[in-house]
Amino acid sequence: MGAAVDHVTPMGMSGGSAEGNDKSEGQRFSCKSKLTALVVDNGGVCRAIQTALLRSYGVETEAVETGEAAVELIASGATFSLIIIEMLLPFMNGPGTAKQIRAMGAQSKILGITAFFDRRDRQEFLAAGADDFIEKPLSPEIVIPIIRELDN
Amino acid sequence: MDVMTQLQRQWREHTAYLRKEGYLDDQFEQLQKLQDENSPDFVAEVVSIFFDDSEKLLNNMARALEQKVVDFKQVDAHVHQFKGSSASIGAMRVKNLCIEFRNHCEAQSLEECVRCLRKLQYEYSVLKNQLEYLFRLEQQIRAAGV
Predict the structure, then answer these.
(1) What structural domains does chain B harbor?
(2) What ipTM goes with this model?
(3) Where do the Response regulatory domain residues begin and end (chain A) (predicted)?
(4) Is A105 exposed, middle or buried (0-12, 13-18, 19+ CB in 10 A)?
(5) Record: contact A14-B26, CB cut-off 8 A
(6) Which residues on B lie below 8 Å from A41 (Cβ)?
(7) Residue-by-residue pLDDT tens, chain B, 146 positions
């Protein structure tokens, strides 16, 4: 784990690892079909990181701050392969957002995400129509299998 | 050893130090992997957002705890957001303090919350200094490479 630091130069050129481990494999991975994603999170840091991670795999990604904005976007006709929704949004919460999105007939894969994993929150999110529920941070280990699944 | 090599070594050593001391975890490395020719300042940009958001959240927590009747649910919501952002950039010590803080919110213990907030403010400011030093080294490396 500590040795990995030597492979990362200050200019961010970390892809040249000779180890050929999962991490460098993650860099070359890219989605095959045209995939789109929507990130719904009131925090700028999480929006920026989740968007960048998805885009690094070739997924066309947008981000909004509220559940209401997500619903509005989808109501206007936008479709997404994947929607990642934070549990604790300021007005309409994560599950409420998922429920409305499903009610509009969206077939997207919905991933609930949260800072603190809680079983009741998970139940609520899944009952609202989410396909899965995870704790932050969003990682390649989570995203890559999802992309592979959506590609097929 | 030329200046560039020296600076790069300092950068590597400082990053290793931050990892060893638990200021940063693996997630920070994930961020570095997202930095490339298309987004050469990605890490600095995200960390800058983190600094702005964190300062707002810490202020909001402080104000919430000063109220006559403390709304612990509101404080918890701020802690939730802070934990999410710190976990996402790999700020391990800050993240762990958020976990502790949440327990105090759930117990509705004002004294413990206030104490935890102070620890959080301290850890955050130390992390900020450490990261700003790291970014200064990067700027020097870039300047040396021109």
Answers:
(1) 3-145 (1.20.120.160)
(2) 0.94
(3) 36-151
(4) exposed
(5) no
(6) 84
(7) 799 999 999 999 999 999 999 999 999 999 999 999 889 999 999 999 999 999 999 999 999 999 999 999 999 999 999 999 999 999 999 999 999 999 999 999 999 999 999 999 999 999 999 999 999 999 999 998 87
